[in-house]
Amino acid sequence: MNANEQILLKQIAWAQNRDIELIGSKGSRGRKTYTTTLDENLFQKLNPLSREEISFGDGGELNGTDNRPAKMQALHSSSALGVNIFDYWRDCDDLSVISSACGLSSRSRKFSGRIQFEQKFSIESRFPFAPNIDVVLYPDSGPHECYAIECKFTEAYSNRGHGGIDPKYLEKAENWNGLEETKRLAEDISQEDHRFQILHAAQLIKHILGLSRRFKPGKFRLLYLYYDAYGEDGWRHSQEIDVFTDIVRSDGVSFKHATYQEVIARLAEYRDLHPDYVCYLTDRYL
Fold first, then answer.
1. Where are the alpha helices (DSSP H) in 114-259?
2. Among 71, 1, 48, 13, which residue's Cα sits nearest to residue 283?
3. Which of 3, 137, 162, 194 could join 200 via S-S bond, C-beta 3.0 to 4.6 A?
4. SS3 of 117, please?
5. What is the distance of C-alpha 167 from the center of its chain?
């Protein structure tokens, strides 16, 4: 059984244990892996500000119809998983618990700031679409102005694959100032990525380019937050992440990676303060 199927079966079992009715990607057709309403797939009702931000994202996560559920209603939706982890903290000024659980700050340091979803960081105005960062933490103070989080659930383990870097991103040398090793990697995976089978390296490189344009060197941190899996797929994913990390860090990019399982295990230490939240996350995703 591959990693994608393992994760999907666990999510189906979670829904069945809660007597949540499931439908297909086209309502009555397709494998039944979608909830009938968005709220059934979320820990709590989506914050209005979060809903607005996600609706302006390029992924069309909330665009459902009578015959086709929204993407975020999928049990395997990475957007829903990100919302279930981070939207709980949307109205909190003190983000110390979630930021330290993600490894973005120490537990002893107070982290105040705000959370936003689907933030766009343009690389060049001539490109019709700017890279969308799933979750961004903007601290009120500290060494970094932005903590960008790219969230992955089952996408890495699907059979759809991913593309490489379009050559148009390599045309302007000034976009790559200080990113020489990252550029060499981009050239290596342009136009087709034959180097990384699971990690979508091209997407992460575009995030780095967008963030580098917006912020001064050393003022942003990019976190790759992914769902770990058993077997060869999970092992290969981990190996590819390590290779990518070494390359971009050699350019001084503050790049981190963590698994959802690690983050949820750290959040579980605060069960007494956030019992319903911790119970939901551990029951569904661990």
1. 180-188, 201-214, 231-249
2. 13
3. 162
4. strand
5. 25
Q: Which two structure tokens, joined as six digits, stand for 41?
A: 């797939």
Bridge partners, 149 (sequence order):
135, 223
Tokens 């559920």 belong to which residue?
69
**CB distance 149 to 119 below 8 Å:** no
* Domain that includes residue 210, residue range: 3-285
Contact (CB, 8 A) for 115 and 91: no
The pLDDT of residue 217 is 87
From the list 148, 85, 99, the residue with the least C-alpha distance to 286 is: 85
Q: How is residue 90 written in tokens?
A: 């949307």
Between 28-32, 35-39, 115-119, the lowest mean confidence (pLDDT) is in 28-32
Q: How far apart are CA 283 and CA 286, in angstroms?
A: 6
Structural domains in the chain (count): 1
Count CA atoms closer than 13 A to 232's CA, side-chain side: 3
| Both tokens assigned to 51 | 């809903």
pLDDT per residue over 51-88, tens digit each?
999 999 988 999 988 789 999 999 999 999 999 999 99
What is the phi/psi pair of residue 139, to 5°?
-75, 150
Got the DSSP string for 262-279?
HHHHHHGGGTTTSHHHHH
